[in-house]
Amino acid sequence: MFRTVHIAPLIALSLLFAYQANAVEMDLVLKAEQERIAAVAKASASTISVFAGAAGGGSGVIISPDGYAVTNFHVADPAGNFMKCSMPEDGGKVYDAVIVGVDPVGDVAVIKMLGRDDFPAAEIVDSNSVQAGDWCFAVGNPFLLATDLQPTVTWGIVSGVHRYQYPAGTLLEYTDCLQTNAAINPGNSGGPLFNDKGQLIGINGRGSFEKRGRVNVGVGYAISINQVMNFLGYLKSGRIIDHATLGATVTTDTEGRVVVTNILSSSDAYRRGLRYGDEIVSFGNREITTVNGFKNILGIYPRGWSIPLSYRREGKRYDTVVRLAGVHSRRELLEKTGNAPIPPSPEEAPQPEDGEESPKEEGEEKPKKPIPVPGHPPKEEAKPPEEWKHLYQEKTGYANYQFNQEHQNRLRQALDAMGDWSQTSDNWELQYSLVDNDNGTIHIGPMTVEGKMAGVNHNIEIAGDLTEKLEPSGSGGLFLALYSWKRLLREKFDTFGEVYYLGTAPRRDFEVQYDVLVGLYDALEIRAYFDQKTGQLMVLEMFPETDSDPCEIEFSEYRETDGYTLPHRMVVRYGDDPFDIITVKKWSVKPAGEGA
After folding, report:
1. How much is the pTM?
2. Where do runs of H (alpha helix) occur along 417-513?
3. Which of 49, 127, 159, 189 is catalytic?
4. What is the end-to-end Cα distance of the chain in Å, rounded?
C-alpha cells in the first residue's frame, strides 16, 4: 500500500521558514541602512562649504567646537584673509571665517569659523588603522552644486593606503595619503573623508580625472588625518608652515634594503651618527622597507620635529632621535606661496642657505603688492566684517600673525603666574650640588655669568662673540643657557629679542607634545618647551649656532621660593650625552633694591 503524503503542510512550513529568514535579512539590511544614514547625518553636520568668490571654492570640516576647521591650501589661498562658509544646519546657514595658518607643501589650511563656540565637530580617529577595503564616504560641495547649502555624499571603499604622490609643480606634495573610489570631484577639495561610522580619517584633495574633462574616474586621494593632526599645532600658530627633510637621500640596494646614498654633514642626522651606506630600519616608529615608504613617513612631519630613527651598520642597530630640518629656506617658501618680500638687488647681502632661518625677515613688513606666482591666482580679498577685523594681523612669514600673538600672550601669562619676574634683581644666584656631590654657586648677573664647576672657575661676559663662550666644557654652553632662561623670565617678549610661537612639538619623549616658544637674542636661538596642561616651562634648548647641538636644560621639582616658583632640579644634556644633574639647594632672586 502507498502512504498518502500531504504536500501542502510541507510547502507551507518551507514558506514560513523562508519568510522568517527573509525577514531577518531584511531587518539586517534596514538596520545597516539606518546606521549608514545616521553616520552620514552625523558627519555632514561638521562639513562646510568654503566660498572664494570668483575664484570658486571648495569644502572643509570643523574639527573643534570653537570653530577651527581644516580645508586645502589651494581652496583657502584664493579666498583671502576672510571668507564665507556654509553649514547644512537648519536648512543651511552662512558664517564668516578667518584664515589661521597654511601648509602649502602638504596642501592644508586651517581656518576659524566665527560667531559661536559650539560648532558641531567631527570625531577624529587614527588613520593608520584604515585598511584597503574599508567602507568610506566623502562629503562636500562638488562643482559647487550645493546651492541649497546641503552637501553631496559619495560612498565607496578605501582602495589603497600609504599612497605617495609626487610633487605637483614646485611645491605641492601628497604623502602617506588614502586612496578611494568614492567620487571626489572639483569642489570636494578640502572636504572630509569619513569611515563607515562617520569618523574623520582624511581630507580630500587630489583626484585622477579623465583627460578631456574634470570628471572623476574612481581614483581620489585624501590627506591622512594623522598628518593633519601632526601639523595642527604649527598651523594654529598662524604661520606659513614648511615640511621636513632628514638631510639625507636614500635608495634601495641590490638586497632590497633602504640605504643612505648622501647625507649633509650639517644635518642633525649626521650629528646623531647616520652615515653613507647605513640601512634605514625604522623612522617615526614605523618600519622602513621601501623608498616610497620612507618618503611617506617623512612627509607627515613638520620642520623642527624630533623623530625616532633606527639604522643598521655592519649588522649592529643604532636607535636615536633626530631633529628634522626644513625642505625650503624661509625666503624660498615665501616666494613660492606669493608672500615673499620684494627680491633684493644684487648689491644686497646673499640669501640664507637652504634650511637656514633668517631672523631679520621675521619683522619685515609685507609688501602691499605680493609678487605674482604661477599657479596661485590673485586672492579675492573679502572685506572683513567690522566685528572681526581684529582677528587678522599681517606680518611677513605668517598667514595670520594675530593667532601667533595670542599664543605668545598665553605662554607669557603662564610664566608670569610663577612670579613677577620683572621686579626681581638683576643678580640671581643659585647654590647647587652635582651628581658627584660637588658643591658650588652660580651667579647670573646683568651681563655676566660666573661660578665654579668641577673645580674650574668660569666667568663669561654677555658681549662679543657668544658662540665662543660655551662654558663649562662639554655642556654646550650651560652658563649662556642659564642667562637666556633668566632673560626670558624677566623680559617681556617684545624686548627679549625676536620671539614667536612655533606650535606644538615632541622632544625625546616622542609621544608627548609641548607648546614651543622660539626666541632669538644676539647670535643665540632658544626654544622653550611648556607643558600644555600646567603651563610650566619644562625644557630650555639654547643653540649657539645654526646646525649645532643645543645645550638642553630639563627643569623639574618646582617649588616656591620668596614668592617665585623655581625649579630645584635641572638635568643638563648636550648632544647624545647627559652633562650633569644640578640639584639646587638655595635660590636668591630677591626683588630689585634688596640686593643679591
Report:
1. 0.86
2. 478-490, 493-496
3. 189
4. 123
| Sequence-distant (≥ 6) Cβ neighbours of residue 299 within 8 angstroms | 106, 164, 173, 174, 175, 176, 227, 243
107 catalytically annotated: yes
Does the active-site annotation cover 443?
no
* Nearby residues of 21 by Cβ (< 8 Å), 6 or more positions away: none
SS (H, E, C) 162-229: EEEEEEECCCEEEEEEEEECCCCCCCCCCCEEEECCCEEEEEEEEEEECCCCCCEEEEEEEEEHHHHH
Partners of residue 291 on adjacent β-strands: none
- Confidence label for 368 from pLDDT (cuts 50, 70 and 90): very low
Are 186 and 192 in contact, with CB atoms under 8 Å apart? Answer: no
Per the CB < 8 A criterion, the answer to whether 138 and 193 are in contact is yes
Q: Which of 103, 107, 268, 549 is catalytic?
A: 107
Beta carbons within 8 Å of 98's beta carbon, 6+ residues apart = 81, 82, 83, 111, 112, 114, 384, 388, 391, 392, 400
* CB-count burial class (<10 Å; 0-12, 13-18, 19+) for 147: exposed
How far apart, in whole angstroms, are the C-alpha atoms of residue 246 and residue 266?
Answer: 11
The 3-state DSSP class for residue 237 equals coil
285 pLDDT more than 90: yes
Q: Which grid cell sits at 298?
A: 617623512
CA dist., res. 469 & res. 475, Å (int): 11
* Residue 328 falls in the annotated catalytic set: no
Nearest CA among 287, 289, 48 for reference residue 189: 48
265 close to 294: Cβ distance less than 8 angstroms: no
For residue range 556-583, what is the model confidence (pLDDT) as tens digits?
999 998 889 999 999 999 998 899 999 9
Cα–Cα distance measured from residue 502 to residue 491, given in angstroms and rounded to the nearest whole number: 19
Average pLDDT over residues 15-25: 69
- Residue 476's closest CA among 547, 545, 550? 550
Beta bridge partner(s), residue 58: 50
Q: What's the pLDDT at 67?
A: 96
C-beta separation of 369 from 342 below 8 A = no
Tens-digit pLDDT profile for residues 202-241 = 999 876 555 545 556 678 899 999 999 999 999 999 999 9
